[in-house]
Amino acid sequence: MAKSSLKSSSNVENAKFRVAKEAANLVKDGMIVGLGSGTTANLFIDELGRRVAEEELSVFGIPTSFESRMLAIQYGIPLVSLDEYGEIDIAIDGADEVDKKSLCLIKGGGGCHTLEKIIDYCAKEFVVMVDENKIVDSLGDKTPVPLEVLPIAYSTVLNELLKRNAAPSIRMADRKMGPVITDNGNMIIDVFIDLKNPEETEKELNSIPGVVENGIFTKVDKILVGSPKKVKILSK
């Protein structure tokens, strides 16, 4: 690997560590915390677990995926369920892309966006952590919107998306035959679609029968943008 590539990779990792630590500092004693999913969210869970282990905090977590649940248990964060605590104090999660003007997001590269959206949207405050490379001028040009779809409806959803001049494809697994299957037992269809109006598109995609949830997130309170040297805060 070239030295420039190694330096770039190191910078991204430093930015992720920095922003995850900053996010963990937003958590206060006694809070119910939505635990996001993804590489940066994993670092946040690690840092939050350290604070719990050192008795800086007494908190409860609500995980957004099987992976974040396993990590929370590993790092000693007590867990509760959403039906026990319908009101979450803060949810902290990552993103695949952030539009620098609207601050809307695309999430779901890891296939967890349905539970992420349920928990993130339930929180009093929804905070997103990203490194600066995730900030884009135009949402969705390079990253498709994921749709979690009931398996029985995949063909009708594909046809409906094609009618809307979208470019859909079933997400296929890397190390198994066939499609990716979510924690909820559903399939994922990734789609490139016009995102000039993310709020309307978020609603329209969910109106297609068979779509459980899509990966457009428009209800965000604060975005922490990490670089190797600092963390910048964006808010609407």
From TrEMBL:
GO biological process, one term: D-ribose metabolic process
Domain of life: Archaea
Gene3D superfamilies per the UniProt record, alphabetical: 3.30.70.260, 3.40.50.1360
UniProt record similarity statement: Belongs to the ribose 5-phosphate isomerase family.
SUBUNIT field: Homodimer. Homotetramer.
Catalytic machinery residues: 116
Source species: Methanothermococcus okinawensis (strain DSM 14208 / JCM 11175 / IH1)
Sequence positions that bind substrate: 37-40, 93-96, 107-110, 134
Enzyme class: isomerase
Annotated gene: rpiA
Cross-referenced InterPro entries: NagB/RpiA_transferase-like, Ribose5P_isomerase_typA_subgr, Ribose5P_isomerase_type_A
Alphabetized UniProt keyword annotations: Isomerase
Entry GO terms, CC: cytosol
Name of the protein in its database record: Ribose-5-phosphate isomerase A
One Pfam family this sequence matches: Rib_5-P_isom_A
